[in-house]
Design goal:
- With 233 residues, the chain is an alpha+beta fold.
- The strands form 2 sheets. Strands 4, 5, 6, 7, 8, 9 and 10 form a 7-stranded mixed sheet that branches.
- The longest helix has 13 residues.
- It is globular and about 55 Å long.
Length: 233
């Protein structure tokens, strides 16, 4: 889709609703005032379907005092949440495996990534969203949640901020087989792994998903499998 002028009439995402019913998507960022060394001059809507690609032109005062004009593209897919489910008694974690085309096209052997459950917020608060995802993907009704941290996962081009959580589970907490929503094209395999095996898979590359690696490392350094024990206890 060609970049559009902000004043163009009849443009999806500008004055005509896009696939998610949104308009005014070319306005995001124009009112930013938190950094006096950055002045947004123009925001173009490059593409808008389910997610949004923008091209923003801004003036930037560098550390030596010089002003430069810069242009950046940002991909806005909304914010999300992710969850590591763990069983300290059996030293297991509950993960997923699913096909990821972007990884496949960029060199992953088969595109099947082992991951912690995750999903978009979709206008929910992070805790509600991750409880929804845990039921859909893993078939688990989650009890108490531990908030781990919030992270910008790819700040050079993607606006998403991901909210990280962890929670205990037992076999009795499984309320369905999980697997995701078929109507959304999801085909998710649920994997129960020993935490030591999962860490080995990080080391040899079989787990290559950033959010999952971060949660597993947190779990053994500071979380339920550390010397400090279960944060939910």
């Amino acid at each position: 889709m060609t970049a559009v002028d902000a004043g163009t009439v009849g443009v999806r995402g500008v004055d005509v609703p896009d696939d998610r019913g949104r308009t005014g998507l070319h306005l995001t960022g124009r009112d930013l005032t938190g950094n006096p060394d950055v002045v947004v001059r123009d925001v173009e809507l490059v593409a808008s379907a389910w997610h949004v690609l923008r091209r923003t032109t801004f003036d930037h005062r560098r550390r030596d005092g010089r002003w430069t004009t810069e242009r950046r593209e940002t991909y806005d897919r909304g914010n999300g949440a992710t969850l590591l489910l763990y069983d300290t008694g059996r030293r297991t974690v509950l993960l997923t495996r699913q096909f990821r085309y972007p990884a496949y096209v960029n060199g992953h052997p088969d595109g099947l990534l082992v991951e912690a459950a995750a999903g978009p917020l979709d206008d929910q608060d992070p805790e509600s969203a991750i409880r929804r995802e845990a039921e859909e993907e893993l078939g688990v009704a989650v009890g108490g949640l531990t908030h781990v941290f919030d992270v910008f996962m790819s700040p050079g081009s993607v606006t998403e901020r991901l909210h990280f959580f962890a929670a205990p589970y037992t076999p009795a907490d499984r309320i369905s087989a999980g697997g995701g929503l078929a109507e959304e094209g999801e085909d998710i395999e649920v994997l129960e792994l020993g935490v030591d095996e999962a860490l080995t898979m990080v080391g040899d590359g079989r787990i290559a998903d950033a959010k999952t690696i971060m949660l597993l490392q947190w779990a053994v350094l500071h979380g339920p499998f550390s010397r400090g024990g279960d944060p939910a206890a």
